[in-house]
Structures are given as C-alpha cells and as structure tokens.
Amino acid sequence: MANKICFINQKGGVGKTTTTMQTAAYLTKNGKRVLMVDMDPQGNLTSYVGVSTEDRNTVAELLLGEAGFEETVQSTPYGDIVPSDEVLGFKEMIITGKVGRELLLSKALKAAAEQYDYVLVDCPPAINTFVYNVFLFVDNVVIVSEPGVFSAQGSGKLIETVRETTGAYDRKINVAGVLFTKNNNTKLADTVKASAEALFERHGVKAFRTSIGTFPAPIGESQMACQSLFDYAPKSKVTQQYAAAIEEILEAVKQ
Ligand SMILES: Nc1ncnc2c1ncn2[C@@H]1O[C@H](COP(=O)(O)OP(=O)(O)OP(=O)(O)O)[C@@H](O)[C@H]1O
Ligand SMILES: [Mg+2]
Questions:
Q1: CA dist 37 to 45, 58, 121, 160, 204, Å?
Q2: Cα 216 to middle of ligand 1, angstroms
Q3: What is the spatial distance between Cα 140 and Cα 174, in angstroms, rounded to a whole number?
Q4: Can you tell me the mean pLDDT for 128-150?
Q5: Rounded mean pLDDT of the chain?
Q6: C-alpha–C-alpha distance, residues 41 and 59, integer Å
Q7: pTM (2 decimals)?
Q8: Whose CA is nearest to atom 3 of ligand 1?
Q9: Which CATH number fits domain 3-252: 3.30.70.270, 1.10.10.10, 3.10.450.50, 3.40.50.300?
Q10: Can you tell me whether residue 80 is helix, strand or coil?
Q11: What is the mean pLDDT of residues 212-232?
Q12: pLDDT confidence bin for 255, thresholds 50/70/90
C-alpha cells in the first residue's frame, strides 16, 4: 500500500516545496517508487523538478475529471509528478462548486496511488478546498514551519484544523511531526522553538529533532538547476540536515 504524505503550512515560504523535493529525491535514490502531487497553483514543485505544463494536463483537469491519471502524470528524475500551474487557481471556483468537492483528489488518485511506494503532496500556503482534498487523501501530515512566533502559532491551529477536517469524515490521519526550517539557532529562534514544541506536545505532536538551517545559496541554485540538493550540493551541510530530517520523517510515517 502506498504511504501518502503531505507537507503543509498555511503560511507561505516556509520550505514546504523544498522539503517535498528533497524527500522525493531521497526516496527515489533508495529505489522507492515515488509519485509527487503538486496541489499549489504556484506550481513551484513542478518547476523544481523541471516539468513544463505547456499544452499538458495538470492536477486541475484531473480533479475536474477532464483528464485521467495516465493523461496527466509526467516522469522526472525524482519520480512521477501530477503537475500544477496557475490554471488550478483559475478553476478554483468551478472545483469548489462541485458536489463532493473535498473528495475529488482521493477519487482521482485512489487506484493510481497503489502503483507507488510513496505519494508526496506539496500543499499551497492556504487552508482551502485544495488542502481539504489533501487531508482526505493522505495518511500522514508533515508540518513545515519556521521558528517564528506567527509560524509556530499557526502550526498549532493547523493541527486542530487537520483533525477537525478528517474527523468530520470519520477518517484518521497521522500528524507525523513538525519540521523546523530556516532555523538560525538564534536566541529568539531557540525560545520560539521551545515554546512551539510545548504547544505541539499538548496536541500530542512532536517536532523532529533535526531542523534545517538557513542556506539560501545552495537551495536557490538547486532550484535554478532543477536538481535536488542530493544532486546539486551533495556535500553541503543543508543536504546532510535534510537526509537526517527525512530519515526521521520516514520513521514517523511508518504505517
Ligand atoms: N532552509 C532554507 N534556507 C534558506 N532559504 C530557504 C530554505 N528553504 C527554502 N528557502 C527559500 O525560501 C523560499 C521558499 O521556499 P519554499 O518554496 O520551499 O517554501 P514554501 O513553503 O513551499 O512556499 P509557498 O508557501 O510559497 O509554497 C524559496 O526561495 C527557497 O529558496
Ligand atoms: Mg511551495
């Protein structure tokens, strides 16, 4: 059975897409069959893996039943991807007007997901119909957060939202943990991280031991090169941090 994981935070720019990409790369390097699903109209994961959506179907057509999985999926060096672009944003109103709108992703990918060991979903920075679709599809949620006051507060609320949504559909979901990124280990970051950890504990959720530091250059350059950090900067400290963090994530999402 495929292990389905999403990377989420309603806050923007915290490292969701970067983390999804490294996880896909790590898993494919270890011989796993990976499907990535880009649920963000920004299409950042799609660009990162070097896929073009010009004249191609995207997750928007898949959700609306205008294209099947085989007509939408594309292959990349880091596994297969259901790509996304701004069309998903244009079609949001149509998608939210559908009966059963929260179950569209789950229905569209139910059979196809079984061809893979892991399905990794990159979420938009929002809580909207797209994200509810993700909650009703995946088994595991990884919250990606910066050690900032607002991020930490938002992550606490996010845990409640995840549980409310899945509870409403009688579905259990594992909040696998919180990954801190862009952590400079400043005094403020350490303080916020500690109080955030106490907040998460109250929800029964742990922060991963490994956090990711601030490394704009190798990450930005790897995006330009459409390569994972494991390929672009294998010796970099951030790459080692990601390897350790991903090991922890995979341990926490074991079914
Ligand atoms: N650890 C890091 N250190 C420094 N810069 C980073 C780090 N992780 C990500 N970035 C940079 O921060 C920006 C946002 O990263 P990313 O796109 O992964 O976040 P996101 O949460 O997916 O954003 P969005 O909410 O817009 O989808 C990018 O420019 C990326 O290069
Ligand atoms: Mg993103």
A1: 9, 10, 5, 24, 28
A2: 9
A3: 5
A4: 94
A5: 95
A6: 9
A7: 0.97
A8: 214
A9: 3.40.50.300
A10: strand
A11: 98
A12: low
